[in-house]
Amino acid sequence: MNIDLNALSAFCLVAEERNFRAAADRLGVTRSAVSQTIRKLEETMGIALVQRTTRSVSLTEAGQQLYADVSPSIANLVQATLTTSSFSGAVRGQLRLAVSSIAERFLSGPLLASFAETYPEVQLDIVVTDEEFDIVAEQYDAGVRLGELIAQDMIAVPVSVEQRQLAVCAPVYRDHHGLPSHPAELIDHRCIGWRARPGAAPYRWEFAENDREFAVAVEPEFTTNDMQLMIKLACAGAGITFGMEETFRPYIERGQLVSLLDGYCPSFAGFYLYYPNRRNLAPKLRAFIDHVRLPRRS
User: What is the tens place of the pLDDT at every residue in 21-38?
Assistant: First the structure.
């Protein structure tokens, strides 16, 4: 049996009002339209639900039972619809983000804290990860990664300026071991490398010379997936490491690290907030995009 939910809703209004015209006014339709809807419902169910006279409307025994059974469900459906509709304008709810561990500015604190203060009804659920996966399949609202790594079917919004990777070491390492004059000489130095997961090959250090990009497969003395450990080891003089300039900048400014091979370290597109192309963007995500996107240059 194929029951029309709209017909059941109209029936419940008739049962509440005991009047076809009053029910029609609440629905914004004509009295005859409500009468026809109830008649079709009775035909579908094969039993009379409403007793009609020129002066009054009452429910049959079957109608009374149907109203008792379905009215709570209809009320719940109406409330669920109203609750869902409220999300169309309200900036609230949980916002799930997958963010690269090297997105330093994004993860530094102030950017996210200021958003939370501006929109206190939004709860940020942030997973810091360098794994590649489908954010839609994993039910994330958005992600933050380097632009070159984002799939072309995603919408990408810039959230950082151009970036650069640097090779760095501590002054004590430089004084004891000297510095390479070319990236190819790194294979003769103690290096601190990064890899995404156990069993994965260490990240190849990327450089450029005469507008030609190339990579050096260093042989690390230390390999880890923790950038903070890489920095600590480098500051302790354990070797040369490689990563994002903005991550190393505070240590360079304090004299704990020095950069090397700068002429072989070009700039490239920075970090982007990316999300699937949806027609009706949730207000919480729209507000977040507007908060974190870089201002347009004049």
Answer: 888 888 888 888 888 988
